[in-house]
Every structure is written in C-alpha cells, then in structure tokens.
User: Fold this.
Amino acid sequence: MSNLTVRPRRLRRNEAVRRLVREHAVSRDDLIYPLFVAPGTGVKREISSLPGNYHWSADTILCEIEEMLKLGVRSALLFGLPESKDEVGSGAYDAHGVVQEAIRSIKARFPETYIITDVCLCEYTSHGHCGIVKGETVDNDPTLGLLARTALSHAEAGADMVAPSDMMDGRVAAIRAALDEHGFQDVPIMAYSAKYASAYYGPFRAAADSAPAFGDRRSYQMDPPNAREALREVELDVLEGADIVMVKPALAYMDVIYRVREAFNLPVACYNVSGEFAMVKAAAAQGLIDERRIVMETMAGFKRAGADIIITYHAKDVARWLKEEE
Ligand SMILES: [Zn+2]
Assistant:
C-alpha cells in the first residue's frame, strides 16, 4: 500500500473534472480581429506575410465582417493603407480616408460591429515614421495634434473606440481632450501603452507597407529588455485617461502582461502580433506543430498571464475551435 495521500492527478482523470477545475478560459468575447483596409472597390488581396489575411476595400470587407460576426467575434481593429502618402501623413486624418470610409461602410451594414481603430501616422507618412520628422528625429509635440485629429476623424466616422499605437509622450491626453471637446467623451481609448521596438512586427510592416525609410523606431518604442519602464508608461497613460492598456507584442512579454495586471485595475489587452502568427503558420505548414493546439495553448497563456483582451490574427480560427469544443 502506498502512503501517498495527496494526488494531484485525481483532478486530471477525465475531461469533465479537468473542465471543472480549469482556472482560465478563453472566450470569443475576449477577441479582437485586426483587419487591413485599402482604397478602391472589389479588393481582396492576400497578404503574403500573413497567410489567410487580406487587404480589403470598404465594400469587400463587409463579407469578412459578416463571417467574423457569425463566428461570434464582435470587435475589429482597423488599419489603413492609404492611396498616397506624404510627409505629414494627411491620409490618416482625411475625413474620406480609407479607414474613415471603411467605418461608415461597416456601420451602415453591420451596426453591431464594435469598431476599434488604430491611430498612428506610420502607414500614412512617406518616411514611414509614426510622427512628424524633423531632421533625423521624430518630433514629439507637433505630432500630438495630428494624432488627435486622426482619432477625432475616426470617431466622427463612427468608430466605437480608438487605439493610439505611436508611442509619443502625451498622446493619450491630447486625444482625450480632442474627443471630449467635440462631444465624444464616451469613446474609450485603448492605449498601446507598453509597445516594444520588436522584430516580431516584421510581417505586419509588409502587410501595412509601413517600414521606416530611414532609421528605426527605437527612439519612441520601448527597449525590449525593460519591464519596470513598462509600468511607468502604463501609469502615464492611465493618468492621461486611457480606458484600456495594452502590451505589445505578447508572447515574449508575458511577464510584462502579468506585472501590468498586478499593478493596475484597468482592463489589459495584449497584441498577439504578426511575427507570432507567422511563426505558427510557417511551422504548421511544415507539419512541425499542431496549429490548433499550439494556438489554443498560447491563448490560454495570455489569459493566465492576466490579459482580458487578445488582439489576434487567429481570432476567427479560435472562435471556430471554441464553438467546436462547446
Ligand atoms: Zn506607427
């Protein structure tokens, strides 16, 4: 006879008991699906660096939104690829820009869609930086007004939430003030608070055509080895009026998600970025991993780390798999 009295395996014997004691669960309600909008009509162009993701025009995107809603994912995060670019990223705050038109198109057909917009200039500037460039540097303060104009134009087009991703100092306060001044005090801000200068964004740059023409983003995005600094960035965004704070990327920054979760009471989002997605897709295509299990395990990891919200290119697949598991 064994003298073991404590046997954790008792609670792992079958699926029923495992479900009963499960600590964290991913829900379709947690998911945000990123989508790329391009000019024109009838556009559905697969993004080679992000298999299964497309550039959509304001008309074709409706099919994707419909499918997303059918699967039980209600929130989309929109990125724009403008017709033309210039030094000051004027396409970003054009009332008839790509994102603004896509918002109107989606809201007219599927008003229940919760539309979040990425607020930044890098997809719209000829130099590919997230702000106004002076010499070789990105000039913080003159950029703030343009970011605020961008967020305001999204709200005017019908966006439900805005998400500044530029990492300029003081942008949340500038955006909050502009929204409030124009009657959009109920539009929340999801701040990309701890956004790192990461190599994991590689496939996105190709998708959004937003690689900087010179230099890199290390003078405004965070240095990957830093975690305490992330808490400081989050704190500032909270003080400036952020409603949700985000950690980006997710996989290599699980500790940061956890620390932010522990230190603040706001909802925490994480961005499961393009490089994380592309690595899974590449390994799965080679038969090296079980895509479904890897993705679901990763999603559970984000929840365990403390994320309330997961922004992911896997959103439709995750929703489908969750439905199958029910
Ligand atoms: Zn940017």
Summary: The mean pLDDT is 96. Residues 120, 122, 130, 165-166 surround zinc ion (CB under 6 Å). Residues 39 and 57 are 6 Å apart (CA to CA).
